[in-house]
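Problem 3 from the worked examples.
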Amino acid sequence: MSLQCQGWQLDTYPQGLPTPQDVSLVSHSLPEPQPGQLVIRNHWLSVDPYMRGRMIPVKSYVPHFELGQLMEGGAVGEVIASQHPDFAVGDKVLHMLGWRDLALSDGTGVTKLPEGMAPLQSYLGVLGLTGLTAWVGLNRIGELKAGQTLFVSGAAGAVGTMVCQLGKLKGATVIGSVGSEAKGRYLTEQLGVDGVIHYKQEASLTKALSRVAPQGVDLYFDNVGGEHLEAAISNMNDFGQLVICGMIDLYNSDGNRPGPGNLTEIIRRRLKVQGFIATDHLADFNAFAQEVGAALAQGQIKAEETVYQGLESTFDAFLGLFSGANTGKMLVKL
């Protein structure tokens, strides 16, 4: 007996910001699982900025989405049928067959989740790839130390809020850039961030950062790129580090936007610039989970979430990432 599945497929490769005309919500029949297969009913879906890069048909660190095929992304769900020896009906699992309500899997990339330790959606955020990204960027790439000044762009986003909190736990002075007064208050009042830049209100981000962090910046965690990267370079202390995690400011660009005009400062200030991909550091997952899991259990880390309701809202949630609609992790609850 087949099941009816709904999911989002990519119909055209977007130019600039994706539009509803680039995607469609489609239905199809899901066959019964064969030996070695299982069916998962998704409860939570993750939408993330990196997915915009998968909508471009070029070679990258993750394959691009194929036209006419369901898109993929992080999801947490429950096994509802199984002929797989490692998974039983009722198991809660983490996997990458998101953007849909039901998924047929051969078990590849499916991880069984412990129950009762944390809300299931946490494994898409603070205890998942989002949290690992922040942890790796600060610990393995940036090697943040107590007493240093950390500047975070996109500081109220999923990765940004984690970077801010981990930075404070390490004893750093943390400066965050945000797009609204409400997000700024959240960072200072709830997360203990030391200083905030409301970038939409500033004529010069370089001057704004100099004002908020006159001592200079030792480590810049970049989620935005563009003017934020240029401002950071101009305010870095000698031998500072720039950890390049994302550049959401450029993801919907036509490719003609100029880069920072002050790159020679990298030489003069002897700066270290390194990009990274969290999935290159999966060997660190246990160390990350132990540290962050304990901090979460002790209330030292907050798991802020912005939740859209229903599969039909998934594309709207995705677009919201580019307009600043989220504080913390953007999720879709099915």
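Problem 4, a separate protein:
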Amino acid sequence: MDRAAVERALGARVQEVRPVFGGNVNRAARLRLSDGRRVFVKHHERPPPGMFEAEASGLRWLAEPGAIRVAEVLAWGPDWLALTWVEAGRATAATWERLGRELAALHAAGAPAFGGPPGFIGTLPQAGGAEDDWARFYGEHRLRPQVRAMVDRGWGRRLRPRLDALIEALPERVGPPEPPARLHGDLWSGNLVVAADGSPVLVDPAACAGHREVDLAMMRLFGGFDARTFDAYAESRPLAPGAAERLPLYQLYFLLVHVNLHGPSWLPQVDDCLRRLGLP
């Protein structure tokens, strides 16, 4: 991280740097500036070109509707991103219920088409594009690129025929037509901060317009969210019939991402997901 570049962008001198947890991909620090501000800065030694610019754009896009609190972008550079510091608090029942309602409102804010600009999920490229058909977008812009990347790495070749068959069958599997939802795109519990006042704050998105069940599927994949969140969401925007059966369909993308980020130890989870979808 170029400290001088950060100071120029923020318009103040850095007086203190305190390392903090930055997630699974980046390092991070809390900066105290000469003007009294405290700032969260995440940085990466060798990020893919455009990674932090894409994240900044995604955060601002999610913040546009004012539906839910999103980490505020201050500035970014090629290898760093500066956000307003959020003082952490503890989640309460009201936090979880508020998250469900506000996430439903974010999804309802929508977008003109499925897709968006090219971006990243972790350090992996995430294809852009714009499609009117959700099944086509999910198959060709999400699942298929991850399947190709996996096979190119020499992993999961025996899974490929089943994955290809699933992609071809997506029009019959994705559920009733829905308008594009404004998605966080990588909503596991580590990408939610609870502020000191108990409000939920979204961070570290892989933002795009997609099917709203994608965010909900990721939230259930690794746990960490209270049942009251899902109840409050359903009260605000009930899900279409068959949502529970579609859960593995929308978790599959994130499992393929984990294969490509973390290696073939994730292949059994992909295999199990396909079996749950009736593709043994």
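Solution to problem 4. The mean pLDDT is 96. The longest helix spans residues 243-262.
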